Amino acid sequence: MEPKKYLKWYNKIGYGAGDIAGSGVYNFLAAFVMIYLTNTIGLNPGIIGTLMMLSKLCDGVSDIFFGAMIDKTRTKLGRARPWMLYGFIGCAITLSLIFAVPTSWGQNAQYAYFFITYTLLNAVFYTANNVAYGTLTALITKNGNERVQMGSIRFMFSYGTGMVVQAVTVGAVTFFGGGAAGWRTVAIIYSIIGLISNTISCFSVKELPDEELDGEENEMIEDGKIKYSLKDAAKMLIHNKYYIMICGIYIFQQIYGAMINAGIFFMTYVLGDANLLGTFAVAINMPMIIGLLITPFLVKKLNGMYKLNLTGYVIGTICRGLVIVGAMIGSIPMMLVCSALASFAISPLQGDLTALIAASSEYTYLTENKRIDGTMFSCSSFGTKLGGGIGTALSGWLLAASGFINNAAIQPESCINMLHFMYLWMPMIIDLVIMLILSRLKVEKANETLLAERKA
Predict the structure, then answer these.
(1) What is the predicted pLDDT for the residue at 323?
(2) How far is CA 157 from CA 62, 153, 393, in A?
(3) What pTM was estimated for this model as a whole?
(4) Dihedral Cα 433, 296, 281, 313, nearest 10 deg
(5) Of the candidates 36, 306, 38, 288, which has an alpha carbon nearest to the alpha carbon of residue 172?
């Protein structure tokens, strides 16, 4: 029997367009905040990395908090959409402020300014928006195929946005006068674009009514109200091994992305042309988008996500190794081709990751008879922020340790060697780790077994 369909094509595209906002914020920060703070403002990359890491410690529990708040919310807009809608207003304001560090202030004041604005963006506004956006996958449809399609479309917009941001930002900053003013203007433009796309996405879908979402027996509901504490939610998450695995995947993916985003330094000081960042961005993101386009078909064809994801990361790890070979023999074309193949190979996981989270939420329901979709989807924001924070901080620490010199035309040999490690070796190592995690991520099979037991 064909599962019930809940969404039209325009609902799926409208939903996916919301990642123009989130991806714009994340990619702009990940790729350019370090080079802005070092080469434009003149701050130390090691101190910046430390502040980013401290910021992540400050907002370590905010993901579970906002997930729990979404589960308890009941409004005319629904459970998740209010948080998604209003959360991005704060994102837009704080993103603009991060790239507007007062140049007349002393360095200590500049470090404090950056820490406060960066923490507000990540711990409060981005968390509220991103957790809510991910949770919508479980609240607007109960069809597994539609969830995979939504994830694929979402990440097509995400990687398309990332490609554009990385390709045009350097030129746009120059066009708007360069220096601090140029960065500030570009940040404001990205914030406005994000506000528009987030609002369109929010109103392009509707959440299912409570009676359909909570129609099953759910021990978390009493007299129409959710009855659990933040501590209860945290315990349920920790007891779900698949949630822990998915969190790990998100963290490693973001560290991977941070190393790839260090490409602005690699292109500038190793390959000698900062504009190559745009070329590599196209080589990485276009195959990813193509792969996402066919992911729903592949998942349906292979009757699940497990084999597809694992095979993709085996191939992706091999291709990242070939990128290293291309760099060793000085072949930029080989690096581009192998980067593209690696990106295409790992794309299915990006497309079905939200469906995997929904499956993990179903696992909690089947094992504990408790449904906590909003809290479960906190892993996407938690993993993204923690991994992104670790990755960006690690970039700063490694650059500082290597002897990086602000605004120098030529960097010392120790820095060049470190850039090779960051941009070439780290991504391959991380792909290998994710591959090992995926070999254990058999949540679909676990759910099938539990459902069979229930029916018996």
Answers:
(1) 95
(2) 26, 6, 26
(3) 0.71
(4) 20
(5) 36
